[in-house]
Design goal:
149 residues, two-stranded antiparallel sheet, mainly alpha, 2 strands
Length: 149
């Protein structure tokens, strides 16, 4: 077996595991989210809470690798729910800024409380030391995939 063939088989195995794990994790989290909250809503609220500063819709779309219309749809729903504030850019009327509201922070915290214990159980079952060892590899994989863009 050539080295190229071995590398391709290794890559196929890695990506199969990553993709299946991602789907299973997404399903676990989605089922645990509070009624009416979608994973995209939680993801935006979580990022805004983590950053604790405003972002433009374009910056949010880029962060999640989605198009602007998909982000606009998500932000519209979050605004309707009172979970984000959207304000105009006072220097450029074409731009807007998005920030998390107190209601959004509470919704994000409730969502985390609904699924974090289940994820923590999975990590405990796996062995936290192995998870810590895997994180740099997974982080580098994500960074490398972002470079491919």
């Amino acid at each position: 077996m050539s080295d190229d063939h071995g590398a391709e088989r290794l890559a196929a195995s890695l990506f199969a595991e990553v993709l299946i794990s991602e789907q299973l994790a997404r399903n676990m989290v989605t089922r645990a989210l509070p009624k009416g909250m979608q994973l995209s809503h939680f993801s935006v609220l979580n990022l805004l809470a983590h950053l604790n500063e405003e972002r433009t819709p374009a910056q949010l779309a880029a962060a999640f690798h989605v198009n602007r219309s998909a982000m606009t749809n998500t932000l519209s729903r979050l605004k309707w729910n009172g979970q984000v504030h959207i304000r105009p850019d006072w220097d450029d009327a074409r731009r807007k800024f998005v920030s998390i509201s107190p209601a959004g922070r509470a919704a994000r915290d409730a969502a985390l409380a609904s699924f974090l214990p289940r994820i923590a159980d999975v990590v405990r079952d796996l062995d936290p030391a192995q998870v810590r060892a895997a994180l740099p590899v997974l982080r580098r994989l994500r960074e490398r995939l972002e470079e491919e863009g």
